[in-house]
Amino acid sequence: MPPLRLDESYLYAAKESSVLDRKPTFVVAAVLVAMLAACTSTPAGATAPAGGSGGALAPATLTLWHNYGTEANATATANLVKAFEALHPEIKINIVSQPADNYFDLLQAAAISKTGPDLATMWTGLFALKYKSYLQPLNNLVPMADLLKLKGIEYSSIDFNPDKGVLVVPLEVQFYNGFYNKALFQKAGLDPNNFPKTWDELFAACQKLKAAGILPFVYGTGGQALGGGFYPWYDVSYLMMKWSPQDWKKLYDGQLPWTDPAVAAQFEKWVSLYKQGYTNQDVLSNSDSIAQFEAGKAAMTMEGTWQIAEFQQKMGDNVDVFIPPFSDTPIHGVVEYSGDGFAMTSYSQHKPQAAAFLAYLASDAAQKIVADSGLIPAKEGFSTNSRMAQELLSYAATKGYTRYPMIDNVIQPEVSDPVGTKILNAMFAGSMSVQDALNNLQQALMQLPPDRRSTEYK
């Protein structure tokens, strides 16, 4: 397997095209029918034919699982399914919202018994590779030309190489980022248009907010509700921007141990946010962090672009985005990554119909629905009208910030979640020392087989 390249161009290394060819859904359907009727034996890396003939797809009822809760991704999913069903009245898709905290366990258990969904939300990067045994490569089922127009498609593929098999059709481009209440900043005597850029500036701002009777940060289960506590990897992605994207590979192969003193120093500063009373003290049990932030009970929260639509609706111009300044010098990195999408299960009994939905997801019409739902489309040439999304896109596009992946997508899942999440939650809440927590993370890494922590991603 070729090593994963995490340089600045990792996400959008590709085609620059100003005009995208529109491919009507009836053509996609005809292609799929013709391909399957011929029992194609196209090689794994081949591109699906661009044209063909055939009748309508056979009637079918599909099941789609997601773990989006009530965030904008769930809204986009519902809107996409509704539009697809209007184009294909012979196909019905039942949407099932699964609990986020054990979603992948449920998906894996269902795969063993082959009782799971036809379509499922799947995280990209190493998560997709971890579960590839029950995911259907799409190269022979969805036109490759359309798949290659999706940003970050390499990180949705076997061996991070689309020619070897695309496993996931990305839904959107995502950011890990923070949100802050500009009115509360102004109330505390802070400039709401000049967000802190370093650790020292952040702690000074937190001190002023606390002195004004304002809780600086609220942590909790958040919009994605990924577990019983907060999801720490949003923060960790920025803590580790002390190192370049290329150097993150060293976390995977062990050259940069989690116990390194420079790593520990970053986590010590992060934990001090809690120790100094700059966060809520119930970070392990708070399930209302989103509502609390929207109600003005805290000045900042850590989330991602999936919360933009809701925050904009509830808070209007009072809310804005920020890049977490977890750095001794002004930070110049941003997490910008196609973090999840939809995959087809290898045991689906309705592959032609499921493939038609995935092909539709890659279409121009679907990308507009994604944008209208408050997300950032993954297809080249499409953008968003969202004020905060445009601001986040500007960091790499015009401000010279380096694009980073989501760190939990490029370190071993056995290290990141749920083991790492529980360890880091305990560290942040003060029930485990930084050194003990990082020792546990390093132990989780070293317990993996050598080929899972080698110079190649697997």
Summarize the structure.
With 458 residues, the protein is an alpha/beta fold. It has helices at 25-37, 72-87, 103-113, 126-130, 144-147, 182-187, 199-211, 233-239, 249-253, 261-275, 289-294, 308-315, 351-361, 364-372, 387-397, 407-410, 413-416, 419-428, 434-446, and strands spanning 60-66, 91-97, 119-123, 169-170, 174-181, 217-218, 300-304, 319-322, 333-337, 340-344, 402-404. β1 (60-66), α2 and β2 (91-97) form a beta-alpha-beta unit.
Written account of the structure:
With 458 residues, the chain is an alpha/beta fold. The protein is built from 19 helices and eleven strands. The longest helix has 16 residues, at 72-87.
CATH superfamily heading of the largest domain = Periplasmic binding protein-like II
Q: Return the average pLDDT rounded to an integer.
A: 86
- CATH class category label of the largest domain: Alpha Beta
CATH topology of the largest domain: D-Maltodextrin-Binding Protein, domain 2
Shape: globular
Order of helices and strands: HEHEHEHHEEHHEHHHHEHEEEHHHEHHHH
CATH arch. level architecture of the largest domain:
3-Layer(aba) Sandwich
Terminal CA distance reads 8 Å
Range of strand content: 5-15%
Instruction: Report the total helices.
Output: 19
Can you tell me the residue ranges where pLDDT is under 50 for at least 5 consecutive residues?
A: 1-55
Major sheet, described briefly? 6 strands, mixed
By DSSP, the count of extended strands is: 11
Q: What percentage of residues falls in helices of 4 or more residues?
A: 25-40%
- Cα radius of gyration in angstroms: 22 Å
Q: SS-based structural class?
A: alpha/beta
Our count of domains comes out at 2
